[in-house]
Amino acid sequence: MNRGYIRLFRCIHNNDMWDEKPFDRARAWIDLLLLANHKQGYLRIRGVRIVVNRGDVGYSVVALSEKWGWSRGKTIRFLNELETVHQIVQQKNNVTSLITIVNYDLYQSSSTADDTASSTADVQQTDTNKNNKNEKKIKTSSSSLDEAVPEPEFYLTKKKKKLTGKRLDTFNQFWDAFNYPKGKADAADAWLDIPLLTDNMMERIISAAKATTQKRFALKEAGKTPQMAQGWLSGRRWEDESEGPVSTGHAQAVIPDHVKETYERMKAAGEI
Protein backbone atom coordinates (compact mmCIF):
# COMPACT_ATOMS: atom_id res chain seq x y z
CA MET A 1 0.00 0.00 0.00
CA ASN A 2 2.99 2.35 0.34
CA ARG A 3 3.22 2.78 -3.47
CA GLY A 4 -0.14 4.47 -3.90
CA TYR A 5 -3.05 3.06 -5.88
CA ILE A 6 -4.97 3.26 -9.14
CA ARG A 7 -8.66 4.04 -9.54
CA LEU A 8 -10.71 1.04 -10.62
CA PHE A 9 -14.24 1.84 -11.78
CA ARG A 10 -17.14 -0.50 -11.01
CA CYS A 11 -18.15 -0.52 -14.68
CA ILE A 12 -15.36 -3.08 -15.19
CA HIS A 13 -18.12 -5.56 -14.32
CA ASN A 14 -19.64 -4.76 -17.73
CA ASN A 15 -16.52 -5.92 -19.57
CA ASP A 16 -16.74 -9.40 -21.11
CA MET A 17 -13.20 -10.19 -19.97
CA TRP A 18 -14.21 -9.71 -16.34
CA ASP A 19 -16.86 -12.44 -16.57
CA GLU A 20 -14.50 -15.14 -17.86
CA LYS A 21 -14.72 -18.14 -15.54
CA PRO A 22 -13.38 -19.52 -13.35
CA PHE A 23 -12.07 -16.51 -11.44
CA ASP A 24 -8.61 -16.71 -9.93
CA ARG A 25 -8.21 -15.80 -6.26
CA ALA A 26 -6.91 -12.29 -6.91
CA ARG A 27 -9.86 -11.43 -9.20
CA ALA A 28 -12.31 -12.80 -6.62
CA TRP A 29 -10.78 -10.52 -3.98
CA ILE A 30 -10.99 -7.48 -6.26
CA ASP A 31 -14.58 -8.45 -7.07
CA LEU A 32 -15.46 -8.28 -3.36
CA LEU A 33 -13.95 -4.78 -3.19
CA LEU A 34 -16.05 -3.73 -6.19
CA LEU A 35 -19.22 -5.24 -4.69
CA ALA A 36 -18.78 -3.46 -1.35
CA ASN A 37 -21.17 -0.58 -0.54
CA HIS A 38 -19.57 2.86 -0.85
CA LYS A 39 -22.08 4.28 1.65
CA GLN A 40 -24.74 2.97 4.02
CA GLY A 41 -27.76 1.41 2.36
CA TYR A 42 -30.42 -1.25 2.85
CA LEU A 43 -31.36 -4.68 1.54
CA ARG A 44 -34.87 -6.08 1.73
CA ILE A 45 -34.82 -9.88 1.92
CA ARG A 46 -37.93 -11.95 2.66
CA GLY A 47 -39.67 -8.80 3.84
CA VAL A 48 -36.89 -7.95 6.32
CA ARG A 49 -34.99 -4.67 5.99
CA ILE A 50 -31.24 -5.21 6.47
CA VAL A 51 -28.80 -2.35 7.08
CA VAL A 52 -25.71 -2.58 4.85
CA ASN A 53 -22.93 -0.26 6.01
CA ARG A 54 -20.06 1.25 4.07
CA GLY A 55 -17.62 -1.51 3.15
CA ASP A 56 -20.26 -4.27 3.51
CA VAL A 57 -21.22 -6.85 0.88
CA GLY A 58 -24.58 -8.64 1.11
CA TYR A 59 -23.99 -12.08 -0.34
CA SER A 60 -24.89 -15.75 -0.54
CA VAL A 61 -22.38 -18.54 -1.11
CA VAL A 62 -24.50 -19.83 -4.00
CA ALA A 63 -24.46 -16.44 -5.77
CA LEU A 64 -20.71 -15.95 -5.35
CA SER A 65 -20.01 -19.53 -6.47
CA GLU A 66 -21.96 -18.98 -9.68
CA LYS A 67 -20.38 -15.56 -10.24
CA TRP A 68 -16.82 -16.86 -9.80
CA GLY A 69 -17.34 -20.26 -11.44
CA TRP A 70 -16.31 -22.11 -8.28
CA SER A 71 -17.80 -24.91 -6.21
CA ARG A 72 -19.55 -23.92 -2.98
CA GLY A 73 -16.83 -25.66 -0.99
CA LYS A 74 -14.05 -23.66 -2.67
CA THR A 75 -15.97 -20.41 -2.15
CA ILE A 76 -16.50 -21.11 1.56
CA ARG A 77 -12.83 -22.03 2.05
CA PHE A 78 -11.70 -18.86 0.26
CA LEU A 79 -13.92 -16.61 2.41
CA ASN A 80 -12.76 -18.37 5.58
CA GLU A 81 -9.12 -17.85 4.55
CA LEU A 82 -9.75 -14.13 3.99
CA GLU A 83 -11.31 -13.93 7.44
CA THR A 84 -8.41 -15.82 9.04
CA VAL A 85 -5.89 -13.21 7.81
CA HIS A 86 -8.24 -10.32 8.69
CA GLN A 87 -9.06 -9.29 5.12
CA ILE A 88 -12.79 -9.60 5.85
CA VAL A 89 -15.26 -10.27 8.67
CA GLN A 90 -18.27 -12.51 8.02
CA GLN A 91 -21.62 -12.02 9.74
CA LYS A 92 -24.23 -14.72 9.22
CA ASN A 93 -27.83 -15.05 10.38
CA ASN A 94 -31.06 -16.76 9.31
CA VAL A 95 -31.92 -14.02 6.81
CA THR A 96 -28.74 -13.12 4.99
CA SER A 97 -24.95 -12.96 5.25
CA LEU A 98 -22.72 -9.91 5.23
CA ILE A 99 -19.04 -9.54 4.44
CA THR A 100 -17.30 -6.51 5.93
CA ILE A 101 -14.12 -5.48 4.14
CA VAL A 102 -11.47 -4.76 6.78
CA ASN A 103 -9.66 -1.44 6.07
CA TYR A 104 -12.21 -0.48 3.40
CA ASP A 105 -11.66 3.21 4.20
CA LEU A 106 -7.93 2.67 3.74
CA TYR A 107 -8.47 1.32 0.23
CA GLN A 108 -10.76 4.28 -0.60
CA SER A 109 -8.57 7.06 0.85
CA SER A 110 -8.16 10.08 -1.42
CA SER A 111 -7.40 13.76 -0.85
CA THR A 112 -8.13 15.35 -4.27
CA ALA A 113 -9.12 14.14 -7.72
CA ASP A 114 -5.54 14.48 -8.99
CA ASP A 115 -3.63 12.77 -6.16
CA THR A 116 -0.04 11.95 -6.81
CA ALA A 117 1.35 8.60 -5.79
CA SER A 118 3.41 10.19 -3.00
CA SER A 119 0.52 12.15 -1.46
CA THR A 120 -1.69 9.05 -1.65
CA ALA A 121 0.98 7.08 0.17
CA ASP A 122 1.06 9.74 2.92
CA VAL A 123 -2.70 9.54 3.39
CA GLN A 124 -2.60 5.75 3.49
CA GLN A 125 0.29 5.74 5.97
CA THR A 126 -1.70 8.02 8.29
CA ASP A 127 -4.72 5.71 8.10
CA THR A 128 -2.49 2.69 8.68
CA ASN A 129 -1.10 4.24 11.85
CA LYS A 130 -4.65 4.81 13.12
CA ASN A 131 -5.60 1.24 12.36
CA ASN A 132 -2.52 -0.08 14.12
CA LYS A 133 -3.50 1.76 17.29
CA ASN A 134 -7.06 0.42 17.22
CA GLU A 135 -6.20 -3.07 16.02
CA LYS A 136 -2.79 -3.93 17.46
CA LYS A 137 -3.38 -7.64 17.05
CA ILE A 138 -4.69 -7.43 13.47
CA LYS A 139 -2.21 -7.42 10.61
CA THR A 140 -2.75 -4.70 7.99
CA SER A 141 -4.08 -6.25 4.80
CA SER A 142 -1.73 -6.47 1.83
CA SER A 143 -2.76 -5.28 -1.62
CA SER A 144 -1.37 -8.54 -3.01
CA LEU A 145 -3.77 -11.40 -2.29
CA ASP A 146 -1.05 -13.94 -3.06
CA GLU A 147 1.02 -12.49 -0.21
CA ALA A 148 -1.89 -11.95 2.19
CA VAL A 149 -3.71 -15.25 1.71
CA PRO A 150 -1.27 -18.12 1.16
CA GLU A 151 -2.64 -21.51 0.26
CA PRO A 152 -3.49 -23.49 3.40
CA GLU A 153 -0.73 -25.90 4.32
CA PHE A 154 -2.83 -28.23 6.45
CA TYR A 155 -6.23 -28.98 7.98
CA LEU A 156 -6.29 -29.83 11.69
CA THR A 157 -8.44 -32.87 12.48
CA LYS A 158 -10.46 -33.56 15.62
CA LYS A 159 -7.53 -35.58 17.00
CA LYS A 160 -5.16 -32.66 16.25
CA LYS A 161 -3.55 -34.43 13.31
CA LYS A 162 -2.64 -32.56 10.14
CA LEU A 163 -4.04 -33.25 6.69
CA THR A 164 -1.54 -31.99 4.13
CA GLY A 165 -0.59 -32.26 0.47
CA LYS A 166 -2.50 -34.67 -1.76
CA ARG A 167 -4.32 -36.20 1.21
CA LEU A 168 -5.75 -32.75 1.98
CA ASP A 169 -6.68 -32.15 -1.68
CA THR A 170 -8.48 -35.48 -1.96
CA PHE A 171 -10.30 -34.91 1.34
CA ASN A 172 -11.60 -31.55 0.07
CA GLN A 173 -12.87 -33.30 -3.07
CA PHE A 174 -14.67 -35.87 -0.94
CA TRP A 175 -16.11 -33.23 1.42
CA ASP A 176 -17.56 -31.26 -1.50
CA ALA A 177 -19.06 -34.43 -3.00
CA PHE A 178 -20.54 -35.69 0.30
CA ASN A 179 -22.07 -32.22 0.85
CA TYR A 180 -23.09 -32.59 4.51
CA PRO A 181 -21.89 -29.65 6.66
CA LYS A 182 -21.43 -31.47 9.97
CA GLY A 183 -18.55 -33.39 11.53
CA LYS A 184 -15.78 -32.25 9.20
CA ALA A 185 -12.96 -32.60 11.75
CA ASP A 186 -14.11 -36.13 12.67
CA ALA A 187 -14.36 -37.02 8.99
CA ALA A 188 -10.80 -35.78 8.46
CA ASP A 189 -9.57 -38.30 11.06
CA ALA A 190 -11.44 -41.08 9.28
CA TRP A 191 -9.90 -39.93 5.98
CA LEU A 192 -6.41 -40.24 7.46
CA ASP A 193 -7.25 -43.78 8.57
CA ILE A 194 -7.66 -44.91 4.96
CA PRO A 195 -4.27 -46.60 4.40
CA LEU A 196 -3.92 -46.16 0.64
CA LEU A 197 -5.76 -43.90 -1.80
CA THR A 198 -5.36 -44.81 -5.45
CA ASP A 199 -6.93 -42.85 -8.32
CA ASN A 200 -9.41 -45.69 -8.92
CA MET A 201 -10.40 -45.73 -5.26
CA MET A 202 -10.90 -41.96 -5.29
CA GLU A 203 -13.20 -42.23 -8.30
CA ARG A 204 -15.23 -44.87 -6.50
CA ILE A 205 -15.37 -42.87 -3.26
CA ILE A 206 -16.45 -39.66 -5.01
CA SER A 207 -19.07 -41.49 -7.07
CA ALA A 208 -20.50 -43.21 -3.99
CA ALA A 209 -20.42 -39.96 -1.98
CA LYS A 210 -22.42 -38.17 -4.67
CA ALA A 211 -24.96 -41.02 -4.72
CA THR A 212 -25.31 -40.74 -0.94
CA THR A 213 -25.86 -36.99 -1.25
CA GLN A 214 -28.64 -37.53 -3.78
CA LYS A 215 -30.57 -39.91 -1.56
CA ARG A 216 -30.08 -37.94 1.70
CA PHE A 217 -33.20 -35.82 1.22
CA ALA A 218 -35.28 -38.93 0.62
CA LEU A 219 -33.91 -40.44 3.83
CA LYS A 220 -35.15 -37.42 5.76
CA GLU A 221 -38.55 -37.72 4.05
CA ALA A 222 -38.68 -41.34 5.24
CA GLY A 223 -37.96 -40.26 8.83
CA LYS A 224 -34.41 -41.60 8.83
CA THR A 225 -31.27 -39.86 10.13
CA PRO A 226 -28.59 -39.43 7.43
CA GLN A 227 -25.19 -40.91 8.18
CA MET A 228 -22.42 -38.42 8.83
CA ALA A 229 -19.18 -38.48 6.87
CA GLN A 230 -17.09 -40.04 9.65
CA GLY A 231 -19.36 -43.09 9.98
CA TRP A 232 -19.68 -43.35 6.21
CA LEU A 233 -15.89 -43.44 5.80
CA SER A 234 -15.22 -45.69 8.80
CA GLY A 235 -17.80 -48.16 7.45
CA ARG A 236 -16.13 -48.08 4.01
CA ARG A 237 -19.52 -47.47 2.45
CA TRP A 238 -17.97 -46.76 -0.93
CA GLU A 239 -17.26 -50.50 -1.17
CA ASP A 240 -20.95 -51.35 -1.17
CA GLU A 241 -21.82 -52.88 -4.50
CA SER A 242 -24.96 -50.74 -4.75
CA GLU A 243 -26.37 -47.90 -2.72
CA GLY A 244 -29.84 -49.17 -3.61
CA PRO A 245 -33.15 -47.45 -2.91
CA VAL A 246 -33.79 -45.93 0.49
CA SER A 247 -34.99 -48.44 3.09
CA THR A 248 -37.81 -47.43 5.44
CA GLY A 249 -37.29 -50.47 7.67
CA HIS A 250 -39.81 -52.72 5.89
CA ALA A 251 -39.78 -52.67 2.10
CA GLN A 252 -37.53 -50.63 -0.12
CA ALA A 253 -39.08 -47.23 -0.72
CA VAL A 254 -39.52 -45.79 -4.18
CA ILE A 255 -38.62 -42.10 -4.17
CA PRO A 256 -41.60 -40.11 -5.57
CA ASP A 257 -40.96 -37.70 -8.43
CA HIS A 258 -42.09 -34.69 -6.38
CA VAL A 259 -39.52 -35.56 -3.70
CA LYS A 260 -36.76 -35.73 -6.30
CA GLU A 261 -37.85 -32.38 -7.77
CA THR A 262 -37.92 -30.76 -4.33
CA TYR A 263 -34.44 -32.10 -3.56
CA GLU A 264 -33.01 -30.77 -6.84
CA ARG A 265 -34.62 -27.35 -6.29
CA MET A 266 -33.27 -27.08 -2.73
CA LYS A 267 -29.83 -28.25 -3.84
CA ALA A 268 -29.72 -25.64 -6.62
CA ALA A 269 -30.72 -22.93 -4.12
CA GLY A 270 -27.97 -24.00 -1.73
CA GLU A 271 -30.42 -24.93 1.03
CA ILE A 272 -29.08 -28.49 1.44
Question: What does this molecule look like?
Answer:
The chain is mainly α. Helices cover 45% and strands 10% of the residues. It is built from eleven helices and seven strands. Strand 6 and strand 7 form a beta hairpin. Helix 2 packs across helix 3 and helix 7 runs parallel beside helix 9. The two termini are 41 Å apart. The relative contact order is 0.09. About 17% of the residues have low confidence.
Which features does this protein show?
single chain; 272 residues; mainly alpha; three-stranded antiparallel β-sheet; two-stranded antiparallel ribbon; globular
Per DSSP, the total helix count is: 11
Order of neighbouring strands in the sheet with most strands: 3-5-4
Strand % is 5-15%
Estimated structural class: mainly alpha
- Let me know the number of strands: 7
Largest sheet: 3 strands, antiparallel
What is the first-to-last residue Cα distance? 41 Å
Rg, Cα atoms, Å: 23 Å
Shape: globular
The residue fraction in helices comes out at 40-55%
**Low confidence ranges:** 111-124, 134-152, 241-253
Overall average pLDDT: 75
What is the H/E order? HEEEHHEEHHHEEHHHHH
